Amino acid sequence: MDDDDTITRSAIDTKQFPDPGFPIRWHIGPRPSALGQTHQALWNDSGRTAEIYMITCDDARFDTPGWDDIVRREFEKYPDGVLLAFANDPNSEQATYPSSAGGFCKRSDTKRYSRHLPVLV
User: Would 2 be classed as within a structural domain?
Assistant: First the structure.
């Protein structure tokens, strides 16, 4: 979340979000100039230990009942941890916010030089 988003920060501080039943770690920092920098900052901030690494925005909604269980079941089909998936975004014909297995991120040791992709090391 951008560090200048005072509305969301206030909602976090006053515990206005319902408990989703799983831990959420908020990343608050300056707005990066490229999306890939955002992905890299979040992966680094996660400690690079996430089993499922899901990137989204602070105004996204997941309306499918049990969506988190669906994601877990799909990721369990790939025990090697190499998977890249996207939720359906009704506002775009393209894949937008990726979810990847932590194994994929850990195995991606090739540096990628793109303003759209993270540099995973």
Answer: no
Query: Which strands, in side-by-side order, build the sheet including 98-101?
Result: 52-54, 98-101, 84-86
Q: Is the pLDDT of residue 27 over 70?
A: yes
Q: How many domains does the chain have?
A: 1
Task: Give the separation between CA 87 and CA 77, rounded to whole angstroms.
Answer: 17
Q: Is the four-CA dihedral 109, 44, 42, 50 of positive or negative sign?
A: positive
* pTM for this predicted structure: 0.58
Given this model, what pLDDT does residue 106 score?
64
**Domain interval for residue 92:** 32-107
Alpha-carbon distance of 86 to 54, in angstroms, equals: 9
If phi over 0 gives left and psi between -120 and 50 gives alpha, with beta otherwise, what is residue 66? left
**Residue 83: beta bridge partners?**
none
Please indicate, yes or no, if residue 91 is contained in any of the structural domains: yes
Whether residue 4 contacts residue 29, with contact meaning beta carbons closer than 8 Å, is answered with no
Question: Hey, CA dihedral for 98, 99, 101, 105, is it positive or negative?
Answer: positive
